[in-house]
Amino acid sequence: MARAMIGTHNGNFHCDEVLAIAMLMQLLEYRNARIMRCRDMQQLATCNILVDVGGSFDLTIKDFYPNLEPAVKLSSAGLIYAHFGKRVITEIAGRLNSDEALEAVFKRQYFSKALALASTELVTNVRQLVEDWLPARIIVKNGLISRFSFHPSGMIAQLIRSGCPWMEHIFDLEKEERITTQARGPRPFSGRPVFVVTSGARMSSVIAVQINEDDEFSKRVYFPESWAGKRDRELDQAVGINGCVFVHTDRFLTAHKTLAGSLKMAVLALKAAGYL
Which residues form the signal peptide (predicted)? Predict the structure, then answer.
């Protein structure tokens, strides 16, 4: 007999889907199940049950995606517990002496599970704020304050840490530092950061800042259209410098092998847009 397959998403995981799968594996039909972690729906279609992936709540195909069942808003663990919880309890504790006893344990465990999940979520969120969010805010603030030292236009900010989640902070910090009132010149974003530069081990990247926090698809300044989608030598020729890596087809992201090269590309983009 083929082993059952439980499907869930890949990438970062959370306690709700882990708990959901742990409960399923208490049941006879899933006790020795294999776990498939991906987002390819063709592959997931081969699974016996899906948890926290698939985008639907459908008992007929055993797809348990959270927050989609009418009138009941539950996490993936909550959905699994709601539909399999009594069987899980019976598998763990054996058959209880009455339905009332089973119901009492079911309800008590429901609260305990919710408490454990809430506690875990609280601790995780606080740690994330202290360990990631707050240090990132300090890095972004320093980058904004020192941007005129990085380039005299004040329109290119350097962040000292690659992968820093700067978009979560830049708009608040612009207001906090009164950068929104520091525009210089006739152009709408003169003196304000339009590009953010970060450096990694292999390359340096320039990312265009969106116009505001509510419009993620519109950028303050785009890279020249003649650069769009080009890479390596072809991009070197279009830009006029060596060491270019790529420019995104939508012209909001570029990379160069060096920090100096990335800064040069940002300056050229500002010139092309009429800011310099």
Answer: none
Condensed to tens digits (0 to 9), the pLDDT of residues 138-178 reads 999 999 999 999 999 999 999 988 888 898 899 999 988 88
pLDDT by residue (tens digit) across 56-93?
555 554 555 544 444 445 667 778 877 888 888 788 77
Kindly state the DSSP code that residue 245 receives in the 8-state scheme.
E
Do 2 and 34 touch, CB atoms closer than 8 A?
A: no
What average pLDDT score do residues 241-247 get? 97
Kindly report the backbone phi and psi dihedral angles of residue 50, in degrees, each rounded to the nearest multiple of 5, phi listed first: -115, 140
Report the SS3 class of residue 38. Answer: coil
Cβ(204)–Cβ(255) below 8 Å: yes
Nearest Cα to Cα of residue 191 among 160, 139, 148: 148
d(CA 31, CA 34) in angstroms, rounded, equals 9
Q: Which two tokens stand for residue 173?
A: 């910090």
Contact partners, residue 113, CB within 8 Å, separation at least 6: 19, 77, 78, 81
| pLDDT at residue 239 in the model | 97
Best CA proximity match to 62, nearest among 74, 71, 72, 52: 52
Does the structure show a pLDDT above 50 at 195? yes
CA distance 103 to 108: 9
Beta strands in the chain (DSSP E): 5-8, 34-37, 49-51, 57-58, 63-64, 156-159, 195-199, 204-208, 210-212, 215-219, 244-247, 253-256
What value does the mean pLDDT take over residues 194-213? 92
